[in-house]
Structures are given as structure tokens and as C-alpha cells.
Amino acid sequence: MKTLAKLPVTIVTGFLGSGKTTLLRHMLDNAQGRRIAVIVNEFGELGIDGEILKQCSIGCTEEEASGRVYELANGCLCCTVQEEFFPVMRELVARRGDLDHILIETSGLALPKPLVQAFQWPEIRSACTVDAVITVVDSPAVAAGTFAAFPDQVDAQRKLDPNLDHESPLHELFADQLASADLVILNKADLISPEDLARVRLEVAEELPPAVKLIEASSGRLPLDVLIGLGAGSEEHIDGRHSHHDHHHEGEDDHDHDAFDSISIELPQADESLLLDALTQLVVRHGILRVKGFAAIPNKPMRLLIQGVGTRFDKHFDRRWGAQEARTTRLVLIGQALDAAALEAQLRAALSV
């Protein structure tokens, strides 16, 4: 019997709002006939990123798209790897003769190292190899002196206390995502000046092993051949990559991800400008890192996709509401020490709903 070659796996990681989902959409849209399975690890209760990926124009029906997107809920992959990741991978391994590649998008709060180490397990290692870990960097955020949000506030604090960044969970997560990378994409390069981009390149390079390549991109638009087929075999050398969180996987109970909350809020239809103004105020007042979800706008037949990093919001109408679909606004807010009830009450008051 013919022995099947190992199935290559690309792990896409990166901080909140760096553009991971956009990169995956680009890869799927340009698959060029490759049979690709996708695993989405969503931080929070709502599968927002999974829904976005299922809207990709990859030449398949919605039912077929749903069948090829495996969505892992309830937190980061390093926390759920034994409970959820292994059964999904076992199913894909059983079908590897029908697949050419697997893409895994980690949560913006996930640690890539323990996920890569999972590919050392005998049942997975015999059938799969990590082609590469790709870390996507939000270049404007790094240029502003932070990693995801509040550039002015964080930069001011950093100038007062140069050690602050290195003590924060955000910086450690950022550094750990870079430490596991085989390829780093400086995304949104078109949104900052050449001088700032050069400074970001130097800053990021300081966190990387010498062999790791840095490339620039706008909205993740890169040739597929640059992104897959790297043959890194990351599981073979991941143990030698230092991580700030290594000790958390050696029997200690502490877990820095507990510093982050992900809450979901459901609202009725709302005026678009009122909703965005209310969300901006909420972000500033409560230090919310990330906002994403779908909004129902009165008298609009399509739902509004909202993705926010700090006070920067991207939005567009992504698809029509289904005939039997409830026209409600569903949002996920990610931050630290968030009070779900208070946030929902403030949103409703601002929207008068």
C-alpha cells in the first residue's frame, strides 16, 4: 500500500486585529485548486472569525464551506488542545488523502508554541508536519508604541516607565508569538510611513531568531507560494525556542491569559453612526482591546461587519440577512477586567434601546 506523505500545516498567529483572518481569506481565495482544511480558534463565545471565513469566495457552497472550517471555541488553543484540537486533527488525519494543506488560525491571545508541540504527539507526527508558523504583525500599532490599541496612551506611559511594556501580558504575548515564528509578515505596511516601517522592522527583528524572514504586506496580499511550502518542520525545533510562558506548561496553575476577558453582547437594530460612536466611547473608557461582530442597521438589507482595534474601526456590509434570520446586533468585546453587565448597559443607554 502506498504511504501517504505528511500533510503540511500552516499555523497563522498574531496579535489582536493584526489581520490573520484577512490573510486566511486571501489564501483561500487564491488556493489554485488546493484542497485546504481550516481550523479556526475563536477567543470568545461567538464564532465571528469562523463566519467571516465561511463567506470566502472559494467556489463552494455554504454547506461545503461549513464542512471545511473546523472551529474550536472557548479560549486559546494551548488551553483547549487536549479537549478539542486532538479530535479535530484525528478527523483530518483520517481524510488526509483528500487534503493538500491545513490552515490553523489561532486566537489573538493564543500561544503558538504549545500548539506546535502538539504536532510531536505520535498520532499527529506520523501524519502531519508544521510547514511554517506565520506571525502577522500590526505594523501601525507597533509603530505607535504598542501592539494592538491605545497608541497615544501606551506610548505616553512607556516614556514615563521604559520597563512597562516588558512587564505587560500584551508585550509577552507579542514576543512569544514572534519567538515561535518561521515567517513574520509586517502587515498594513501601506498605512505607515517608510521611516516608521523601517523602525518597526528593526524592532521586530530584535525579537526573532536570525533565520526567520520578515516580509511586508498590505491586507495580507502575498503570493501563496510565499506563504506555503516553506517546509520548516517547526515541530522538530520548537522546543529550542524560548517563551515567556514556558513555565506555565510545566505544572504551574498560573495562566496569564486569565488577564483577558471576552464578553458577548446582543443588541437590537441600531443606527450605524450612533453604534460606532458608542463603541468608540466604550473603548476609550474601559480599555477595550478588540471589538468584532455583526450589526443590524435599520432599513439596510445587509448586515454590517464591524472589526475594531482600539479606536480604529473597519466596517463593511458583508452579506444579506437571511429570510428567517433574526436581525440582531452581535458583538464580542475583548479586554482586561471587563464588566459585561455595565458595558451592555452603557451601550444600550447610548443607543437608547
From TrEMBL:
Residue segments, region Disordered: 237-258
Protein name per its UniProtKB record: CobW C-terminal domain-containing protein
GO molecular function annotation: hydrolase activity; nucleotide binding
Compositionally skewed regions (Basic and acidic residues) per UniProt: 248-258
Keywords: Chaperone, Hydrolase, Nucleotide-binding
Gene Ontology biological-process entries: cobalamin biosynthetic process
SUPFAM superfamilies: Hypothetical protein YjiA, C-terminal domain, P-loop containing nucleoside triphosphate hydrolases
Superkingdom of the organism of origin: Bacteria
Gene3D superfamilies (alphabetical): CobW-like, C-terminal domain, P-loop containing nucleotide triphosphate hydrolases
Record carries keyword Chaperone: yes
Pfam families: cobW, CobW_C
GO cellular component: cytoplasm
Family, as annotated: Belongs to the SIMIBI class G3E GTPase family. ZNG1 subfamily.
Function: Zinc chaperone that directly transfers zinc cofactor to target proteins, thereby activating them. Zinc is transferred from the CXCC motif in the GTPase domain to the zinc binding site in target proteins in a process requiring GTP hydrolysis.
Catalytic activity as recorded in UniProt: GTP + H2O = GDP + phosphate + H(+)
Domain CobW C-terminal residues, every copy: 260-351
Entry keyword Transferase: no
SMART domains xrefs: CobW_C
